[in-house]
Specification:
Belongs to the complex I subunit 6 family. The protein folds into 3 domains: about 1-80, Four Helix Bundle (Hemerythrin (Met), subunit A); about 85-115; about 115-165. It is built from 7 helices and no strands. It has helices spanning about 1-20, 25-45, 50-75, 85-110, 115-125, 130-140, 140-165. Helix 1 (about 1-20) packs antiparallel against helix 2 (about 25-45). The longest helix is centred in the middle third of the chain and has 27 residues, at about 85-110.
């Protein structure tokens, strides 16, 4: 039953990811992106990572999508007309085939080893995922965390500059 549910969520994720690219309206693309993020959160729950699922919903499906919709409204994007050349279709199909081959390779390679399950069990046994993520974030990854905060500040300043431009 769990495998059937996984395939159903995977199908919805792939279809909504396809709609992100194919929708002509940017708002419809953003709504499809929300569905893709929700499917990813469901995958996190299936992997017994509820903290990551909650962060996925709060940060990506909440804050990032609101930011994307505000940018769409600020820039007044209507329906976009896209010119697709035959070269981009060939490159896209080639990239899709390479990703499929890589995914099949790693699925076959991962089935033979069971090392991933023991690592997750060790983390859960030593206090849970939240404590391990918090400790790693504020000790080992403090510099990237601070650099990210500076980049977010620059993005906010850029959004204000775009919003205040003269028409």
């Amino acid at each position: 039953m769990e495998l059937l549910f996984f395939y159903l969520v995977a199908l919805v994720a792939v279809l909504s990811g396809f709609l992100v690219v194919k929708c002509k309206s940017p708002v419809n693309s953003a709504i499809s992106l929300v569905m893709t993020f929700v499917c990813l959160a469901v995958f996190y729950v299936m992997l017994h990572a509820p903290f990551m699922a909650a962060i996925q919903i709060m940060v990506y499906a909440g804050a990032i999508i609101v930011l994307i919709v505000f940018v769409i409204m600020l820039l007044n994007l209507g329906t976009a007309t896209r010119q697709v050349s035959s070269h981009s279709v060939v490159w896209g199909i080639g990239a899709a085939v390479l990703v499929l081959i890589q995914a099949l390779y790693f699925l076959n390679k991962g089935g033979a080893t069971g090392a991933q399950g023991s690592l997750a069990e060790d983390i859960a046994a030593t206090g849970g995922h939240t404590e391990a993520i918090g400790k790693a974030l504020f000790t080992d990854f403090l510099l990237p965390f601070e650099i990210t905060s500076i980049l977010l500040l620059v993005a906010i300043i850029g959004a204000v500059v775009l919003a205040k431009r003269e028409v």
